[in-house]
Write a structure and sequence with these properties.
This protein is mainly alpha-helical and about 240 residues long. Helices cover about 55% and strands about 10% of the residues. It is built from 11 helices and 3 strands. Helix 4 packs across helix 9, helix 6 crosses helix 8 and helix 8 packs antiparallel against helix 9. The protein is flat and about 60 Å long.
C-alpha cells in the first residue's frame, strides 16, 4: 500500500470513527474485483488469489441483516412476520446502503479496474452498496459484533425509526411474491436469461416466470437488481394493486 493510499484510508477511518479497524481490511473492503484482477494488489490468500471485497461483502450482508432484524423486532412488538420482512428489506436494500456509503465518502476510495472506472463505476450504486457491506464485514472481523452493531445502529437509525426513506428502496420482488401467493396461490421464479460484457462489468438479463411462463424481463449490473426490475415491470404493466 503506497503512502497516498495509506493517508486517504487513515483520513477515511478518522472521519467515520473507524479508528482501530485494520487499514488492510478497509483497503480490501474498498477493492473491487475488477481492480484485483487487473493489478497485483493487496494481500494474497492461501489460494494465491488477490483479495477483493466480495467475501467481506458476504459477511457484512449477514451482520447487517441480523442487527436490523433484532432492532425492528424490539421496536415493533406487534408487527407480524410479513410487516417485519417488508421493513427489513427496505432498510437493508441497495439504495439505502448506497446512500449511507455515499455519505461516508466511499466513492472517492473505491479501487476499480480500468473498464469499470471508465464506465462510471465509482458512482454506481451497486458498487458503493457492496463496499458498504464489505466495510461492515471488515469491522466485524477486526473489532467484533458489539462494535459492528453500534456502527450499524448509528448510521441506520433514521431508516430503522422510519424518519428516512430512500428513493428506489421499494422491494418490488417481495411485494409481488406476497401478492401472487395471496391472490393466486403461486410463487414467481427468476431465471438468468443471458449475461453480457466482461467479468468485471456484466449485464444480467433476468426473466420473471409465473406458472413456468415468461412474464417480464429485467436487465441490470447485478442479478438482484435485475430481479427487482423484472418484478417492477410486471407490477406496472399489469397494474397490480399492492
Amino acid at each position: 500500500m503506497n503512502k497516498d493510499r495509506l493517508k486517504k484510508l487513515k483520513n477515511f477511518s478518522s472521519r467515520n470513527s473507524l479508528q482501530g479497524v485494520s487499514l488492510e481490511l478497509l483497503d480490501q473492503a474498498l477493492t473491487h474485483k475488477s481492480y484485483a484482477n487487473e493489478n497485483y494488489h493487496g494481500y494474497k490468500n492461501k489460494l494465491k488469489v488477490n483479495l477483493h471485497n466480495q467475501r467481506l461483502e458476504f459477511l457484512g450482508d449477514t451482520i447487517l441483516g441480523t442487527v436490523v432484524a433484532l432492532a425492528i423486532c424490539r421496536q415493533c412488538e406487534e408487527c407480524d412476520e410479513g410487516n417485519l420482512t417488508k421493513k427489513k428489506s427496505r432498510i437493508v436494500c441497495e439504495a439505502t446502503l448506497a446512500e449511507i456509503g455515499e455519505g461516508l465518502g466511499i466513492a472517492d476510495l473505491l479501487l476499480l479496474g480500468k473498464g469499470e472506472k471508465d464506465t462510471g463505476g465509482s458512482e454506481r450504486k451497486s458498487n458503493i452498496a457492496d463496499a458498504m457491506e464489505s466495510i461492515l464485514g471488515a469491522i466485524f472481523l477486526d473489532r467484533g459484533y458489539d462494535t459492528t452493531e453500534m456502527f450499524i445502529l448509528k448510521h441506520w437509525a433514521p431508516y430503522i425509526e422510519g424518519e428516512a426513506v430512500v428513493s428506489g428502496s421499494i422491494d418490488y420482488k417481495s411485494q409481488l411474491q406476497e401478492w401472487l401467493v395471496k391472490k393466486r396461490k403461486i410463487r414467481p421464479e427468476y431465471r438468468v436469461l443471458s449475461t453480457s460484457g466482461p467479468e468485471h462489468d456484466k449485464d444480467y438479463e433476468i426473466g420473471l416466470f409465473i406458472m413456468d411462463e415468461l412474464a417480464s424481463r429485467g436487465i441490470a449490473k447485478s442479478r438482484k437488481r435485475a430481479e427487482q426490475t423484472a418484478a417492477e415491470q410486471y407490477i406496472k404493466s399489469h397494474k397490480v394493486q399492492l
